[in-house]
Design brief:
A hairpin with a 4-residue loop joins β3 and β4. This protein is of the alpha/beta class and 177 residues long. The chain has five helices and eight strands; from the N terminus they run βαβββαββββααα. The structure holds zinc ion (2 copies).
């Protein structure tokens, strides 16, 4: 039987080269085929004027409802500032053991913190957040290993300190050798 796929959905016109590189690393980390899709997403319905941010939980529901044959995990990529009610902002959000996740590059950009723009750093962070949220979809919880991608991150500095890889304990949990 053919393995089901993880679908990486660019919902806001992300650069094709960046997405190709994410697809490759995601497939490598989870040992599943990853398929890239473009989606014309009207984000305006999810804007919260009071917070001037976008409602990640509602966006997550829409991603969950997108149907792609052969897909069992879907992750939507966005550019807007995402929130969930209990937090000031989030880098990403996924349902534990669920079929969908959302990630935004908004808070991952150096220029937001008064630093020089860096495509390279942004892409590295984006990759780590996507792999992290995908890990949650595969049932992984936060890991204490300081370099494991499943370590929780509150600030971009936390993301920078970890690797983009699952540690051996997390890999064992997924049955990946
Ligand atoms: Zn997490
Ligand atoms: Zn780990």
């Amino acid at each position: 039987m053919e393995k089901q796929s993880i679908i990486l959905i660019s919902c806001d016109h992300f650069d094709k080269d960046i997405c190709a590189s994410i697809v490759e690393d995601l497939a490598h980390e989870f040992h599943y085929p990853v398929i890239f899709k473009d989606y014309d997403f009207d984000i305006s319905d999810f804007y919260h004027p009071g917070r001037r941010q976008y409602d990640a939980n509602s966006i997550l529901k829409v991603v969950s409802q997108m149907s792609y044959p052969g897909s069992f995990k879907k992750i939507g990529l966005f550019r807007v500032d995402l929130f969930i009610p209990i937090l000031t902002y989030i880098f990403g959000q996924a349902i534990l053991n669920g079929d969908s996740g959302v990630v935004s590059h908004y808070r991952l950009r150096n220029e937001l913190y008064g630093l020089a723009q860096s495509k390279e750093i942004l892409n590295e962070r984006l990759k780590k957040v996507i792999i992290h949220e995908t890990g949650h979809m595969f049932g992984l919880i936060h890991c204490q290993n300081p370099v494991c991608v499943m370590r929780s991150s509150t600030y971009v500095e936390d993301i920078d300190q970890k690797s983009q890889n699952l540690c051996s304990k997390c890999r064992a949990e997924l049955g990946i050798s």
